[in-house]
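Write out the 3D structure for:
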Amino acid sequence: MYKRILGLSVVLLSGCSTLSSDDDFSDAINEVEKKSTYVSIEAKSINPIENEGVGANAMRNTSQLTANYATTSRAVPESYVAVELSYFKASYVYDSVSFNGTETDITAYSPSTESCSEHCTSTQYFTFPIDNKDIELSAKNGLTYDVHATNDTSKLSFTIPAGYFQAVLDEKALQLEHIPSSVQQPAVEVKVESKDSKPVEMSKYWFDEATVAEQEQFTEWAFINRKEINTELVSSSKELEMLTYWYSKSSVTDKSNILTWIINKK
C-alpha cells in the first residue's frame, strides 16, 4: 500500500516549477524530508512525453515522483507517482495504470473536476505505486506508463525520461551516504501491512505527515464531523487536504477508530 498518496488541485504544483521532458534534470529535486525511519525525496513535477494512445489524447499530464528510502529496519511507505491528467470529457474515466508488465489500480487523491468553455474538460487526480527497484530501472531506461479506462475503451501512454529518476537516485545517495547498507536494504523489500481499512490507514499516514498546528485543526474538525461530514475544512496544505479527503471516505466506525487513535497519540 503506498502512502502519501495521497488533494487538491494544487498538490502537484505546490510551489515548484514543472520540468519538461528535455530538461537536463540538474535541479529536479523539489523537497527532501527526513522522517524518523526514512527519507522522502520529492522530485519536481514533470510534463511527460505523450506516446500514441488508443481512443483519446491527453490535454495535459503533470506527473511527480515521491521516493521513500528507509533509514532504519522498520517498514516505510511505498514510493509513488502522483498524476494530474486532463482530457476532453468522455463517458469513461481512467482507473488503472500499467508499466513494466504489471497493471495496478489508481488511487484518487482528490475528486475529479470538470470545466467547460467551447469544450468540456475532465481532470483526474490520482497516484499509483512504484517499487524502488522500478525507480532504479527507470533511471536507466526511463519509465513508460499507460493509463487505462474501464474495459480499455481508452488508453493513454506517457514516458518520463531516465534523467528524472537518476536525479532522485543521486539525491538518495547523498542523503543515505552515512547510513549502513544493511539498514538501507529494507527500503526496497519491506512493505507496510495493516489490518486497518484503507481510509483509516491513509488518514493515519497523513495525520503523521501534518504539522502540530494542522493536526490540532484537523482533530477539532474531525470531532465535529465524526458522524458525517457537514462542514468543509478549507486549507492550502497538501497534508490537510489529503487527510480530510481520506477521513471523508471513512465509515462512521472508521471515523471513530481514527479519532481514538489520535487521542491515544496525545
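The helical segments are 132-141, 162-175, 181-184, 186-189, 198-209, 212-224, 238-249, 252-265.
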